[in-house]
TrEMBL record:
The gene is 5565221. SUPFAM superfamilies: Glycolipid transfer protein, GLTP. InterPro entries: GLTP_sf, Glycolipid_transfer_prot_dom. Residues 30-175 form the Glycolipid transfer protein domain. This is Glycolipid transfer protein domain-containing protein. It holds the Pfam family GLTP. It comes from Aedes aegypti (Yellowfever mosquito).
Length: 212
């Protein structure tokens, strides 16, 4: 059904809202970030077992962050990525054993965004509509998420990618409108990169890249 398809325009709009009206130019609103990932989850799910290694993890992490955001006592502390990191660092929550860290949870989504950005960027750069997408997906995965996955998951992910269709078949399978998606892709990638870079800089600033 059409409503179950992946809407690239919705991802683009959500990532734009991550940056609009923010108090500083180095922060990211969390609510629209999670909305973008809800849509990206559709992309992963529609690809079936190919992206099974990441789709279930995305759903779980989004739900954890939404729960933190909606908490009556401290939900406002999770309005932006910077506020969340300040709250968890200043409250010594990052090392608390019975606490589910928002910063740690977001880090998993952040790494996933690196992968999906690189994959979609190279997908858009394919010159032929019938070009095989397997190689670009494997390369994007190996350069990003693979470094955080154990060998068994890496092996299974790379093997599953051999079954991927060509570019246009892939887009027809997952997108509401493949032709619109191809045209919008560069704009979406540009704003997604801004969101990724800001988030990356915050993890560097707060020295949180190594969260277990």
């Amino acid at each position: 059904m059409a409503q179950d398809k992946f809407d690239l325009q919705k991802v683009h709009g959500s990532f734009e809202l991550c940056l609009v009206g923010i108090e500083t130019d180095d922060d990211v609103f969390l609510d629209p970030y999670l909305e973008a990932f809800k849509e990206l989850y559709k992309f992963f799910s529609l690809m079936g077992t190919v992206f099974g290694f990441v789709s279930s993890d995305v759903k779980e992490k989004v739900e954890i962050l939404e729960k933190l955001r909606k908490h009556a006592d401290h939900g406002e502390r999770f309005e932006t990525v910077r506020k969340m990191m300040d709250y968890e660092r200043d409250g010594n929550l990052l090392a608390k054993k019975d606490y589910v860290s928002g910063s740690r949870t977001l880090l998993r989504l952040h790494r996933g965004l690196d992968f999906i950005y690189l994959f979609l960027k190279r997908l858009g750069e394919l010159e032929s509509a019938t070009a095989n997408t397997c190689a670009v997906c494997q390369t994007a995965y190996n350069e990003t998420l693979a470094q955080f996955h154990p060998w068994l998951i890496r092996k299974g992910a790379v093997m599953a990618m051999y079954a991927m269709p060509n570019r246009d078949q892939l887009l027809e399978r997952v997108c509401l409108d493949a032709s619109v998606a191809i045209k919008l892709l560069p704009e979406m990638l540009a704003v997604a990169r801004q969101v990724y870079d800001r988030t990356q800089n915050l993890y560097t600033l707060y020295d949180l890249h190594g969260l277990p």
